[in-house]
Specification:
The chain has 413 residues and is α/β, with parallel strands linked by helices. Among the domains are: 141 residues, 3-Layer(aba) Sandwich (Rossmann fold), CATH 3.40.50.150; 120 residues, 3-Layer(aba) Sandwich (Rossmann fold), CATH 3.40.50.720. It contains 13 helices and 17 strands. The strands form three sheets. Strands 6-5-4-7-8-11-10 form a seven-stranded mixed sheet, with helices on both faces. The chain binds zinc ion. The site of zinc ion has 8 residues, from loops.
């Protein structure tokens, strides 16, 4: 069913209020080959609305999800921080929910099996659901049973016919879902009585507070508050019963969800109460709380451009680390071009030898960094800054310094 243009993807209210308009940019994960540099590069509007009724912050898809996610370049296992996070999650869930070899775990958007492999190792039956065939194939090679599919009511009905899930995990996928109601309906269908769904997503509270506008790109269709998500799950007979704050992606939430007739749905929960209070204090329960992003983004962009101009004037060389989607939003909104930044380092071999969309900065190996010895290293995935500063610690040997641009420009040793 095609989405109605310009209506809220949850409550269908017409969208008339702009949260942030970032102009027109290429798709953030459309890395270019040398031959493609010569061709015209498609750009698409990157405009985010906030629904005046349910306060869901959202963008209309500009290209079908099938075009983006069916052959995906992102392999979760390239981030050691993320692997550790997944291992801790599996240990925590086994303890908290008392999972045994008689339980069944389903992960939506299971990527290369980075998370479920922990359940496989523990002898707990599991199934991954992953739309990108190339990434799913890697999971299967690692011994993680994986179904190549987009999740929603139809997939849930098919999978649930075999076995309902005691635990369903959906990490950093909800933002990528074009048909939010169909997706959440799938949880209701697939979840066993007494079962638990956990969903992790970047919290819009942090996006607004820390001007994390670079987490906005065409693959992210929704940006969630607890306020709005409680309405979304309730509309599908599901209820939040706990939540945790996580440091991942600059500040995420992990919510715990059960059927609305589960005893856990009735119990008061201090974590939920605290988060609701924090959101209300930030104004996220009313439309005015979403105002004012444009001028704050302009200040970040000015800070980055001033730094690059000064570096050029001083004859200093600047490189970047992390050919991630969020870096592309920052660079393209700021209008940065190859030459201002010599190259970007990335460990993913699928990206090396290619060029960033829009800015056309070449993607190279970490070894190139240590050979070229630039004066500054701009860390694009600031959420992984600790990991990257440790990995690139040797730049200090030639006086190299680390730079981050969000929430404001910072230079450090
Ligand atoms: Zn709405």
């Amino acid at each position: 069913m095609p989405m109605e243009a310009n209506n809220c993807r949850f409550c269908r209210t017409p969208l008339n209020r702009v949260f942030l308009d970032l102009g027109r940019t290429p798709l953030a994960n459309s890395y270019l080959s040398a031959a493609q540099l010569e061709k015209p590069e498609p750009v698409y509007p990157l405009k985010v609305h906030v629904c005046e009724s349910c306060l869901l912050v959202q963008a209309q898809p500009v290209v079908p999800a099938e075009d983006i996610f069916s052959d995906y370049a992102y392999f979760s296992s390239f981030s050691s921080t993320w692997l550790d996070h997944a291992a801790r999650y599996c240990a925590d869930m086994r303890d908290r929910l008392g999972l045994t070899p008689d339980s069944f775990v389903v992960e939506i958007a299971s990527n290369d099996g980075y998370l479920l492999k922990n359940f496989v190792a523990a002898g707990i039956p599991c199934l991954g659901v992953e739309p990108a065939a190339n990434v799913a194939a890697e999971a299967v090679r690692q011994g993680v049973p994986t179904e190549v599919a987009f999740f929603g009511a139809e997939t849930a009905t098919r999978l649930g016919a075999n076995r309902l899930a005691n635990l369903m995990a959906a990490n950093n996928v909800l933002a990528h879902v074009p048909d939010l109601n169909d997706f959440v309906a799938g949880f209701k269908i697939s979840l066993a009585p007494g079962g638990t769904v956990t969903v992790e997503f970047p919290h819009i509270l942090e996006l607004i507070r820390d001007v994390q506008f670079d987490t906005i790109y065409h693959e992210h269709y929704s940006y969630f508050s607890l306020y709005t998500l409680e309405k979304v799950f309730a509309a599908h007979g599901l209820c939040l019963f706990d939540a945790q704050r996580l440091p991942t992606h600059g500040g995420s939430l992990r919510i715990f969800v059960c059927h609305d007739d589960d005893a856990r749905a009735e119990a008061a929960n201090a974590n939920l109460a605290d988060l609701r209070a924090a959101e209300n204090a930030a104004g996220l329960d009313r439309i005015e709380g979403y105002d004012g992003m444009t001028s704050r983004v302009d200040a970040v962009v000015s800070g980055l451009n001033a730094f690059l101009s000064q570096a050029a004037a001083d004859g200093k060389r600047v490189a970047a680390w992390g050919a991630a989607a969020k870096g592309n939003t920052l660079l393209n909104v700021a209008g940065v071009k190859a030459g201002q930044i010599d190259f970007v380092v990335d460990r993913n071999p699928a990206k090396q030898g290619h060029y960033l969309p829009g800015s056309h900065i070449p993607v190279v190996t970490p070894e190139t960094l240590f050979g070229e010895k630039p004066d500054y290293l701009l860390i694009l995935p600031w959420n992984l800054a600790g990991e990257i500063r440790a990995e690139a610690a040797d730049i200090r040997q030639w006086g190299g310094r680390f730079v981050t641009a969000i929430p404001d420009l910072r230079i450090r040793d």
